[in-house]
UniProtKB/TrEMBL annotation, chain A:
Protein name, entry field: Sulfate adenylyltransferase subunit 2
The entry's keywords: ATP-binding, Nucleotide-binding, Nucleotidyltransferase, Transferase
InterPro entries, sorted: PAPS_reduct_dom, Rossmann-like_a/b/a_fold, SO4_adenylTrfase_ssu, Sulfate_adenylyltrnsfr_sub2
Keyword Zinc annotated: no
Domain annotation Phosphoadenosine phosphosulphate reductase: ranges: 34-257
Positions of the UniProt region annotated as Disordered: 285-304
The enzyme's E.C. designation: 2.7.7.4
Family membership noted in the UniProt record: Belongs to the PAPS reductase family. CysD subfamily.
UniProtKB/TrEMBL annotation, chain B:
InterPro entries, per database record: APS, APS_kinase_dom, CysN_GTP-bd, CysN_II, CysN_NoDQ_III, G_TR_CS, GTP-eEF1A_C, P-loop_NTPase
Gene3D superfamilies attached to this UniProt entry: P-loop containing nucleotide triphosphate hydrolases, Translation factors
Quaternary data: Heterodimer composed of CysD, the smaller subunit, and CysN.
Record Pfam families: APS_kinase, GTP-eEF1A_C, GTP_EFTU
Species the sequence originates in: Williamsia phyllosphaerae
Annotated keywords: ATP-binding, GTP-binding, Kinase, Multifunctional enzyme, Nucleotide-binding, Nucleotidyltransferase, Phosphoprotein, Transferase
EC number of the protein: 2.7.7.4, 2.7.1.25
Residues bound to ATP: G465, L466, S467, A468, S469, G470, K471, S472
Metabolic or biological pathway: Sulfur metabolism; hydrogen sulfide biosynthesis; sulfite from sulfate: step 2/3; Sulfur metabolism; hydrogen sulfide biosynthesis; sulfite from sulfate: step 1/3
Matching PANTHER family: TRANSLATION FACTOR
UniProt xrefs under PROSITE patterns: G_TR_1, G_TR_2
Protein name: Multifunctional fusion protein
Length: 304, 628
């Protein structure tokens, strides 16, 4: 615990706040679960959870909401983490919903399974009877998220009502709920993208390789570079080319863009993040651009 | 690869160094340009990204705004963008090389008081916006009052739209003086004024060229420099136990530690500690930070886990403190409450769940002392309920004992929320004033000696009045005469008590109340022993004198209130300690009669005036009139 006299550095203060939130949930909920995608925010969240309960193992499982459209590097990483830490992993898969006819897949160029994640997420919560679900959302990511509580109440349908949020004061969190309702908990609420990267550097946290510069076949679309994968439908007139890129966020492979970058180390990424003039979601997430209120509408449906 | 268990114990230079974290709350209405101010802070400190800017430029054009409306950056919900108002607290982040800032952007309208209270609860500093054309309004006073109620240590008034008053220094000075007069009634320790134009960027990040008469530096400069390290309580060691870490291991090695976030003071390995409410004592064996980093000294807001030398059973909801510095432990609490619920009012007898530190308990409302008008600070003592966004003083009774401090001493251990059991909603937030005078959790040890077996019947003479009204001189004469007549009597002078019993208290309203509460309690002990306690205290508030009276009544002890009614002009003329002169000069704050009220007694047993003669003559008259 580094200290400057009786002052904590901002990273230590953020770490302490997140650890407090993990312990609070473990103490007051019966069946928490931690959403884990292999993306950097969920990796940092998992790292913080492990630190919070040291030397005991974390008292909850991980859940991966799997769109089926994954980057291979991320799935490899996920499975390696599970093997090395002995944590329990639950996979809730969109493919199961499609196969069972619960959801209908979009087709054509621009099709993405990202919107279908909501159904798989809610089903995973119900099937595992989670009463609290940790998510890696940060308030700096997007306008609607700036209004999120740390403990975010969700009704029986998983929906978020922005006009009826519980006041949240001091570090007193109200997680009380009726059966069938649950609480989404965001331990990284007050972290920014730069904080996350600085913490990854400080803690020497390992990430999937696609966060660092590598050569990849990409398709330019809507001002973004989309990875050419077996899941992406190429529209007429679109051309792919090879580029040196890295990913700022990791989501569904069909709608997560990458950025041109030669940053191959954490330090180089931090320099780039500190200098960048685009938000990480604005630059790389087609799914948030749908409308001015895209994220708000999706949160009301039960997404994060 | 990832993180083998031992690798969780990393400690690198990056974590050790780094910036300070400053949490600030902004208050003011949209019309004052609050969103524009925040937008400007983010924009000028290069915290706005190109795509965010493009999005607000697009929306501004669609709405027909003449310029890129920076307010759009902060109003994130559709209803807010449509109505151009801020409904909920939004959190914004920006960094400078010196500090990382978390802004709780709170709505300014009175119907969203609960959201302002929410955003203000953790803030180190509040920025209250004033429109230079409109000056200090009701809502300015409300925001300042809420900031002081929530214990925000630093308050900054940003006088905005200076461009619309021709950058006038006179106008700025006028607003500053008017606000400073009002603020002297509040618990504000650090007050700063900055004239700005959020729209044009003057004095936000860069120094204004339009206001060369102002030498105080821009707003961001103040935010970067304001000293926050001393705001925390490093005296009273408190750690509410949050979670017990007890891994089940097959190899038989044993680990048991109590995890929690330090709420005050400091803890070191080797410290003697006491666990409350059980009262078991032990010694700290080890302290670990997250991931098992050995900690030599833990302080707020570190999240740690502590192992103790003794095998005692400690559970969530208990508190670790020091044997010689404990929080209050009790079931009856006196507090200010802000009510959040649209669905029902807070009324006497209502039952809720109270959550304070890591304790939860059922609680019932014992009484509503008054409702406070947040605009005028008027107290309505006839109030029977609190409804949405109202604030009042209450007492409550908790089923389980709570461990707490006064909110003024510690925001973590002095705060609580109330939850409605039927809806699970958070319906209120409370700031603890202290324990209720008669705390039923403490068993009163009856004495074997009854009052009529003592040689004398004791009682308390309570002298109240302005500073320099002559209370102390009369009190000295009273004591001299009573002792000379063979009566046990003891003088308790307010100034002298502040050197000892009450040396930890200041002169804010809450500390004054605590000063009086303690003095009342000690006076009853003297009175119960058969002595006459002679209390000489300004005691400016009627309800506090009433409580002193009630404490005595509960023990069936006589209480005589003597009002030393010397006019303010006369007290100022005397001014033996030069305090009035200093108060007039603004060097002494919250001085009774100058910038803090004195509520004249209406139920005093005796009223004495300078016309009644010398202190000795008055003392004779008091003894005669009270039949002592």
């Amino acid at each position: 615990m580094p200290q400057i006299g009786y002052e904590l550095s901002h990273l230590s203060a953020l770490e302490a706040e997140s650890v407090h939130i993990f312990r609070e949930v473990a103490a007051t909920f019966e069946r928490p679960g931690l959403l884990f995608s292999g993306g950097k925010d969920s990796v940092v969240m998992f790292h913080l959870a492990r630190k919070a309960f040291w030397p005991a193992p974390i008292p909850f499982p991980l859940m991966h909401v799997d769109t089926g459209h994954n980057f291979d590097e991320v799935i490899e990483y996920r499975d390696r983490v599970v093997a090395e830490t002995g944590v329990r992993l639950i996979v809730s898969s969109v493919q199961d919903d499609i196969d069972a006819g619960r959801v209908v897949e979009q087709t054509g160029p621009g099709a993405s399974r990202n919107r279908l994640q909501t159904a798989a997420l809610l089903r995973g919560i119900t099937e595992n009877r989670f009463d609290a679900v940790f998510g890696g959302a940060r308030r700096d990511e997007e306008k609607a998220r700036a209004k999120e509580r740390v403990f975010s109440f969700r009704d029986r349908f998983g929906a978020w009502d922005p006009r009826a949020q519980r006041p949240e004061l001091w570090n007193l969190y109200n997680g009380r709920h009726a059966k069938g309702e649950h609480i989404r908990v965001f331990p990284l609420s007050n972290w920014t993208e730069l904080d996350i990267w600085q913490y990854i550097e400080a803690e020497a946290i390992d990430l999937p390789s696609i966060y660092y510069a590598h050569q990849r076949e990409v398709v330019p679309r809507d001002g973004m570079l989309l990875a050419k994968t077996r899941f992406l439908e190429i529209a007429d007139g679109e051309r792919s080319h090879t580029e040196t890129v890295r990913f700022r966020t990791v989501g569904d492979a069909t709608c997560t863009g990458c950025v041109e970058s030669t940053a191959a180390t954490v330090a180089e990424v931090i320099d780039e993040v500190a200098a960048t003039r685009l938000t990480e979601r604005g630059a790389t997430r087609a799914d948030d651009r749908i409308s001015e209120s895209g994220m708000e509408d999706r949160k009301k449906e039960g997404y994060f | 690869m990832t993180i083998p268990a031992d690798r969780l114990r990393t400690e690198t230079a990056a974590l050790r160094g780094g910036k300070e974290l400053l949490r600030l709350a902004t208050a003011g209405s949209v019309d004052d340009g609050k969103s524009t101010l925040i937008g400007r802070l983010l924009y000028d400190s290069k915290s706005i990204f190109a795509d965010q800017m493009a999005s607000i430029e697009r929306t501004s054009a669609e709405r027909g705004d003449e310029y890129a409306n920076l307010a759009l950056l902060t109003d994130g919900l559709r209803a807010e963008r449509e109505q151009g108002i801020t409904i909920d607290v939004a959190y914004r982040y920006f960094s400078t090389p010196r500090r990382k800032f978390i802004i709780a952007d709170t709505p300014g309208h009175v119907q969203y008081t609960r959201n302002m209270v929410t955003g203000a609860s953790t803030a180190d500093l509040a920025i209250v916006l004033i429109d230079a054309r409109k000056g200090v309004l009701e809502q300015t006073r409300r925001h300042a009052f809420l900031s002081s109620l929530l214990g925000i240590p630093h308050l900054t008034l940003a006088v905005n739209k200076m461009d619309l008053v021709d950058w006038s220094q006179e106008r700025f000075d006028e607003i500053r003086d008017e606000f400073a007069t009002f603020a002297s009634k509040l618990n504000v320790t650090d007050l700063t004024f900055v004239p700005v134009s959020a729209l044009l960027g003057d004095n936000i990040v860069d120094t204004s060229v339009n206001m060369p008469w102002y030498h105080g530096g821009p707003l961001l400069d103040h935010l970067e420099r304001v000293h926050i390290a001393s705001d925390r309580n490093l005296i009273d060691a408190r750690m509410p136990v949050q979670y017990v870490i007890r891994p089940q291991r097959s190899d038989g090695s044993d680990h048991r530690s109590y995890a929690g976030t330090i709420a005050g003071g400091t803890f070191k390995p080797g410290d003697d500690v006491v666990v409350l409410p059980s009262g078991f004592g032990s010694t700290i064996e080890s302290i670990w930070g997250p991931g098992g980093v050995e900690v030599t000294e833990a302080f707020a807001p570190m999240a740690v886990s502590i192992s103790l030398a003794d095998e005692i059973d400690v559970a969530r909801g208990e508190m670790i403190a020091r044997p010689n510095n404990r929080p209050y432990v009790g079931r009856d609490i006196d507090a200010m409450v802000c009510w959040f619920s649209e669905d029902g009012e807070l009324r006497e007898g209502n039952r809720y769940v109270i959550a304070s530190t890591t304790t939860e308990s059922r609680a019932s409302i014992s009484s509503i002392a008054y409702r406070l008008d947040v605009n005028s600070l008027h107290r309505d003592e006839n109030a029977e309920s609190l409804s949405l966004n109202e604030i009042g003083r209450i007492t409550l009774h908790s089923q389980q004992p709570l461990m707490f401090d006064g909110y003024r001493r510690n925001r973590e251990t002095g705060s609580f929320i109330l939850v409605d059991e039927a809806t699970n909603k958070t319906v209120g937030a409370g700031m603890i004033t202290g324990p209720v005078a008669r705390d039923s959790n403490v068993v009163w040890h009856g004495s074997k000696v009854s009052a009529d077996q003592r040689p004398y019947r004791g009682g308390t003479i309570w002298l109240t009045g302005l500073s320099a009204s002559g209370k102390s001189s009369i009190a000295v004469e009273l004591e001299r005469r009573l002792v000379a007549a063979g009566r046990p009597a003891y003088l308790m002078d307010g100034d002298n008590l502040r050197h000892g019993l009450n040396s930890d208290l200041g002169f804010g309203d809450d500390d004054r109340r605590e000063n009086i509460r303690r003095t009342s309690e000690v006076a009853t002990l003297f009175a119960d022993s058969g002595a006459i306690a002679i209390v000489s205290l300004i005691s400016p508030f009627a309800d506090e004198r009433q409580r002193a009276r009630e404490i005595h009544a509960a023990r069936e002890l006589p209480f005589y209130e003597v009002f030393v009614d010397t006019p303010l002009e006369e007290c100022e003329r005397r001014d033996p300690k030069g305090l009035y002169a200093r108060a007039r000069a603004g060097e002494v704050k919250q001085f009774t009669g100058i910038d803090s009220p004195y509520e004249r007694p209406s139920t005093a047993e005796l009223v004495v005036t300078p016309a009644d003669g010398s202190p000795g003559e008055v003392a004779d008259a008091v003894i005669r009139n009270l039949g002592l």
